[in-house]
Automatic annotation (TrEMBL):
Enzyme Commission number: 3.1.3.15
Purpose: Catalyzes the dephosphorylation of histidinol-phosphate to histidinol, the direct precursor of histidine.
One term of GO molecular function: histidinol-phosphatase activity
Pfam families registered for this protein in UniProt: HAD
Catalytic function, reaction form: L-histidinol phosphate + H2O = L-histidinol + phosphate
InterPro entries with a match to the protein in the record: HAD-like_SerB (IPR050582), HAD-like_sf (IPR036412), HAD_hydro_SerB1 (IPR006385), HAD_sf (IPR023214)
UniProt-listed NCBIfam families: HAD-SF-IB (TIGR01488), HAD-SF-IB-hyp1 (TIGR01490)
Chain ranges passing through the membrane: none
Name the record gives this protein: Histidinol-phosphatase
Species name: Achromobacter ruhlandii
Family as reported in the entry's similarity comment: Belongs to the HAD-like hydrolase superfamily. SerB family.
Pathway annotation from the record: Amino-acid biosynthesis; L-histidine biosynthesis; L-histidine from 5-phospho-alpha-D-ribose 1-diphosphate: step 8/9
Length: 232
């Protein structure tokens, strides 16, 4: 048993008022780095629609999203991502989201971003928030380049539970070891992990998740409207 609390954060539409995966693909399309820009945008919109309906699989998302990584050298991808962070991500990080994260960090909680978006896109974003741990869908790399395939279990739906358990187990811990465990998410896709923590919090929730949260008595916050202090 540990005296520390556990704080897990979904990323897209939870800490960020946007979808980083969607925005990354859009950034590559509008800067001429995603093949046919119109076709890339069409596929990107289709994936987002299916995700919002809860009908998207990790493998379907990977075929397009990780394919964008496989098409380019890591050196170029890294340079483009730095520009993406400056142009799209950092201006979108709100004081309220930063304050929520900082309240958990200052309380000494063990904090992690738990996201379905791949770790290439999200690792710099987690660092921007000061969150030391990341549980994300990992992209396979061979001979120094991305293959376009998922490595291991995708951090998506029930896979988030698996990946969080594996991450904690590597530290000799489990969810039951924490006196309190928080998970903030906006998406119905995250119900499996929300059900596993002691403090499930629907943050800026979709209509479907809002209804589930109200039915089950889960806390609902609209993070981008006001600052939430995790100490209270």
């Amino acid at each position: 048993m540990t005296s520390r609390r556990l704080a897990l954060f979904d990323l897209d539409h939870t800490l960020l008022p946007l979808d980083s995966d969607y925005q990354w693909a859009d950034y590559l399309a509008r800067t001429g780095r995603a093949g046919d820009p119109d076709e890339a945008r069409r596929q990107n919109d289709d994936l987002m629609d299916r995700y919002n309906r809860g009908e998207l699989t990790a493998e379907q998302a990977a075929e397009f999203m990780l394919g964008l990584l496989a098409a380019h050298a890591p050196f170029d991808l890294a340079a483009w991502h730095e520009a993406f962070m400056a142009e799209v991500i950092r201006p979108s990080i709100t004081p309220a989201a930063r304050a929520l994260v900082e309240s958990h960090l200052e309380a000494g909680d063990l904090c992690a971003v738990v996201t379905a978006t791949n770790s290439f896109v999200t690792a710099p974003i987690a660092r921007a928030f000061g969150i030391p741990h990341l549980v994300a869908t990992d992209a396979e790399v061979q001979r120094g380049r991305y293959t376009g395939r998922i490595l291991g279990t995708p951090s998506f739906k029930e896979g988030k539970v698996v990946r969080v358990n594996d991450w904690l187990a590597a530290m000799g811990l489990g969810l039951a070891d924490f006196p309190e465990s928080f998970f903030y998410s906006d998406s119905v896709n995250d119900v499996p992990l929300l059900e596993k923590v002691t403090r499930p919090i629907a943050a800026n929730p979709s209509p479907t998740l809002r209804a589930i949260a109200q039915e089950r008595g889960w806390q609902v916050i609209d993070l981008f409207d006001h600052v939430i202090d995790a100490k209270s």
